[in-house]
Amino acid sequence: MLGDYPIKGRRASEIAADVEQGVSTGRLAPGTALPPLRDLAGELGVNPNTVAAAYRLLRDRGVIETAGRKGSRIRPRPALTPRDEIRLPVPPEARDLANGNPDPALLPDLTPALAAAAEAARRDPVMYGRPPVDPGLLALVGAGFRADGLPDAPIAIASGSLDTIERILATRLRPGDAVAVEDPGWGSLMDLLPALGLRAAPVRLDDEGPLPEALAEALAGGARAMVVTSRAQNPTGAAVSAARAAALRAVLAGHPGVLLIEDDHGHGMVDQPFHSLVGAGPEHWVVVRSAAKAYGPDLRLSFAVGDADTIGRVRGRQRLGAGWVSHLLQGTVAELWRTDAAPVARVAAAYRERRDALRGELAARGIEAHGASGLNVWVPVPDETTVLAALVQRGWVVAPGARFRLQSAPGLRITVARLDPADARRLADDLAAVLGTGGADARLI
């Protein structure tokens, strides 16, 4: 069962920590079965309740899963082994199309904005007791949300989209609750849920976003929350259309107790219109936007607008921990928002050209591909491992779909942010050679 790894400990916290150590070092592999409660209690000389408490801690931390009489075992992807580790090394001379990064050439020069924020801090240093949100940034963020038809509601500032989503989930859900998520979807979110003791309920999608019937199935199965990507969905590039938003709102109308989280991380670098699901029925809702894709991943700043109770809980918990996000960062983003000379349309057009170039070349070779918005193109394939290895031999490193999937079919994520049309033609030739007769039929992702 455990091979040569003897679990040690006298207290629940010690037993749980020992199992986590075995997982993080690789001595307890995914799928390894743990001893029954009474057996392990007898080996350790402790009360079975102590072992039960240890297993409960491990479940809440996303390390193990329990399947009734089948017992407990290490999760296929424990929270200690994030999906980002499912990657291939990039050999010398190979092109890295797996990283998901924006094109640095399309990011603004931060120097003037940083200097302006530093000068403002020199004139009026931020001290304890200052409101957590910069008034100038708050005004800009609020105006942006209202321009997209969202209610005039409270706003919170946090350190990136995932940080915001984590805080929202932690304030409203309990361990064991299920969250409806897109499949394929954001791997980091899929890692976060088990770390919070939550369960992912997969929702299929196509180029227009989550399928209404799949969302209805997840909600009927007891999902307490839904996370939907408005535009630039990772990894497929899906963007919620007006018709799909209306259909999803109709599903949500019958579930007022569900927490709705809309992740609009593509704001500022996509030109598709924003179609919100807010107002459909859920009493508790939040829309999250981030500076990472438009201004650079190291600007760890995100904005969230939502119902007063949820945003109030997020702010209150933040005060007890991080306190606030640096006003230097807030001032920098506010300055960029006011003065950035690169319009969204130009950046969005550049990424669209690169996506369309690759999708067009693939279509010409009979290969199905998805990428309606954002930085990535998703290509369904019959076998990820074989195709990945063959592409590496031809000088291309792309992201394995396993990083993004729960129950959906295999695929590859190709980041096209720095892929020019000439490279797209060569990549399509190589992918066609690897796939032979072409790609799989994948009208639904």
Topology:
Blueprint: H1 12-24, H2 37-44, H3 48-60, E1 64-66, E2 72-74, E3 95-97, H4 111-123, H5 135-147, E4 155-158, H6 161-172, E5 178-182, H7 187-195, E6 199-203, E7 205-206, E8 209-210, H8 212-220, E9 225-229, H9 242-252, E10 259-263, E11 285-290, H10 292-295, E12 302-306, H11 308-320, H12 327-339, H13 344-364, E13 376-380, H14 384-393, E14 396-400, E15 411-415, H15 421-435
Parallel strand pairs: 3-14, 5-6, 5-9, 9-10, 10-11
Antiparallel strand pairs: 1-2, 4-12, 7-8, 11-12, 13-15, 14-15
Summary keywords:
single chain, 445 residues, alpha/beta, seven-stranded mixed beta sheet, four-stranded mixed beta sheet, 15 helices, 15 strands, 14% strand, disordered C terminus
How does this model look, in words?
The protein is of the alpha/beta class and 445 residues long. Helices cover 40% and strands 14% of the residues. Helix 4 (111-123) packs across helix 12, helix 6 crosses helix 11 (308-320) and helix 8 runs parallel beside helix 9 (242-252). The longest helix is centred in the C-terminal third of the chain and has 21 residues, at 344-364. Mean pLDDT is 91; it is low at 438-443.
Shape: globular
Work out the helicity level: 25-40%
Provide the gyration radius in Å. Answer: 23 Å
Given as residue ranges, the uncertain stretches (5+ residues, pLDDT < 50) are 438-443
Distance, first to last CA = 37 Å
Write down the secondary-structure element order.
HHHEEEHHEHEHEEEHEHEEHEHHHEHEEH
Structural class: alpha/beta
Q: Kindly report the spatial arrangement of strands forming the biggest sheet.
A: 4-12-11-10-9-5-6
Give the helix tally: 15
The overall pLDDT average reads: 91
Largest sheet: 7 strands, mixed
What proportion of the residues form beta strands (DSSP E)?
A: 5-15%
In total, how many beta strands? 15
